[in-house]
Amino acid sequence: MTKPLIVGVTGASGLIYAVRTVKYLLEADYNVDLVTSKAAQLVWQDEYQKGLPSDPDLQVDFWRQETGVFSSGTLTCHRSTNIGASIASGSFATLGMIIIPCSMSTVAKIAAGLSSDLIERAADVQIKEGRPLIVVPRETPFSLIHLRNLTTLAEAGVRIVPAIPAWYHRPQTIEDLVDFVVARSLDQLGIDCVPLKRWQG
Question: Which of 18, 28, 158, 166 could cross-link with 193 by S-S, CB 3.0 to 4.6 Å?
């Protein structure tokens, strides 16, 4: 069985990035361990006008509905407060982790080595184990504090992929713009499962 990939979803705006990421990973039959922060649940209500359940089993059904992928891939959801979950240990082998979208609060806590919830703990584990960690910050403008925290993560080997879409692939929809960021983020993990018109020169 393929090692799982951890997906963290925080309270930054732009939860569509998370939905599209999970969609393509499940369609490509990946094993996904998903953690949604408490703040992300609040933002979900604002952006989608619907509640995201807190129960992990109900979350699985919720994400399957949101992504429209019902049969392929394996999806395991964890409570953000469960710091005893499998993904909180370095002995649990993974392909790495992507935090999309990533709030600047989460960036700051990871940069400081804090682990106040499961997303931060899992991220800390990826860094200490030398596994890939990709953060997709969705903030503008960046303050000096933000930039310093991002620099700290980059110096620790974390890949920083800001949610900045391109236009050379001639996007026609919001989903096209989102998918560019998702594809470039997954590229950092060597995963190519998003249909994207890539630059040919």
Answer: 28
**Percent of the chain scoring above 70 in pLDDT:** 100
Distance, CA of 189 to chain centre: 12
Model confidence pLDDT, tens digit, residues 28-39: 999 999 999 999
Whether the Cβ atoms of residue 21 and residue 180 lie closer than 8 Å to each other: no
- The answer to whether 25 and 4 have CB atoms below 8 angstroms apart is no
pLDDT tier, 107 (very low <50, low <70, confident <90, very high otherwise):
very high
- Give the domain ranges of the chain: 5-187
CATH of 5-187, one of 3.40.1390.30, 3.40.50.1950, 2.40.50.140, 3.40.50.450: 3.40.50.1950
